[in-house]
Amino acid sequence: MIETDKKKQKITGNLTFQILIAMIFGAILGVIVHNNWSEETAKEFSTYIKILATIFIRLVQMIISPLVFTTLVVGIAKLGDIKAVGRIGGKAMGWFFTASFISLLIGMFWVNILEPGVGLHLANIDVATASEVTEKTHNFSAQNFIEHIIPKSIFEAMSGNEILQIVIFSIFFGLAAASIGDHAKPVINALDKTSHIILKMVNYVMKFAPIGVFGAIAGVFAIRDLNELVFTYIKFFSSFLVGIASLWVILLLVGFLFLGKRLKLLLNHIVSPLIIAFGTTSSEAVFPKLTEELERFGIKNKIVSFMLPLGYSFNLDGSMMYMTFASIFIAQAYGIQLEIGTQLIMLLVLMLTSKGIAGVPRASLVVVAATCGMFKIPIEGIALILPIDHFCDMFRSATNVLGNALATSVVGKWEKE
After folding, report:
1. What CA–CA distance (Å, rounded) separates 43 from 222?
2. What single DSSP character describes residue 150?
3. How many C-beta atoms lie closer than 10 Å to residue 339's C-beta?
4. Under a CB-based contact definition with an 8 Å cutoff, are residues 206 and 280 in contact?
């Protein structure tokens, strides 16, 4: 058993090293292409090289829906009754909403203190680049929000990788299976075996991670002028990093408070998922890998399979911090003064509208745009942050992974599992 664990640690270490090397070479290749090729050729190169990242993310997305369904149903069935589900679910939601509120507050605090949007020149901003996001925003309503949460068909939800909808169906299915008792055991055992097969598939898919990260990084650096980004957005990006760093400090302090010295072991287990999320800007891309690593850390399968799907719907700490930060930044750039009371109302609106957003690139921008529209802030202001958003997304995706790993570990400890 010990030899098996050491072998797995060695494989994980090699994967982490390969991903770091892929990021470095991807950045170097992207910069070379940007500096030596024409703008049109560089864009074409970026489009094709990003196919590598698309392949990797789609391979992961291919197994997310069946993994969430099988592990969550098995987890709920193993919990045994509605009381246990309610108890753990209550602890989970308490953590999620507290963490989300703190994350939103941190973003609101630093954007007001550092004021990165004040004095920004808007003359060179191309608002046409925001059209894709603003088009999605027009469909953002209370009715669509409810429709996004409640599944019309489990097959439709699975085909679209709507994690929250799959979670809703799986909870009902799992509770129904638990209430039947022994009669449901053959179904639960079959789903349990299926989940292990899918986790085995994860190992195969993760071998492609370095190539996917290489494509994602090379594609971005090929079309972005690094010097222009640095000088134009240095205040915004450095202010954002201060906020993210503050959030990491708080998350790690709270994690140490509950986990003690085991926090270091947890970080060793999740370093690979953190780097993959950072490189691909998708916390969703590491869902299967994170599931595996948290179980290896020692958390029972029934806790991991219950907590992670919920966390991916309700506990995106990095994205939450970014939402208040970006929304108020856009208001500052347009010279719109928002009273503290108005900002607190915005925070509460974001608390509700952000739940259930996918852990995929650019999902949070739609919520930011919709929130701006509610508070009479020009939606086109999204164009201000689009050039630098990919790099911000790298940090917030990794933060989402850290937040969910800590939440799952702490609830696991509370349940003595």
Report:
1. 7
2. S
3. 8
4. no
List the one residue out of 234, 221, 213 whose CA is nearest residue 278. Answer: 213
* Cα separation, 130 vs 156, whole angstroms: 29
Q: Lowest-confidence range among 34-43, 303-312, 405-414?
A: 303-312
Q: What's the half-sphere exposure (Cβ side, CA atoms, 13 Å) at 1?
A: 1
Question: For residue 364, which phi and psi values (nearest 5 degrees)?
Answer: -70, -25
Tens of pLDDT, residues 200-240: 887 888 888 899 889 988 998 898 777 766 666 788 889 99
Which amino acid, 257?
L
CB 69 within 8 A of CB 157: no
Residue with tokens 């809703």: 168
Distances (CA, A) of 65 to 39, 158, 195, 227: 39, 5, 11, 41
Is the pLDDT confidence value at 50 over 80?
A: yes
Rounded distance between C-alpha atoms, residue 52 and residue 332, angstroms: 38
Residue identified by tokens 């963490």 is: 99
Q: What distance in Å separates the CA atoms of residue 396 and residue 85, rounded to the nearest whole number?
A: 30
Structure tokens at 324: 């208040």
- Per DSSP, helices labelled H in 127-162 are 131-137, 142-149, 154-159
The predicted model gives 124-152 an average pLDDT of: 61
DSSP one-letter string for 311-346: HHHH--HHHHHHHHHHHHHHHHHTT----HHHHHHH
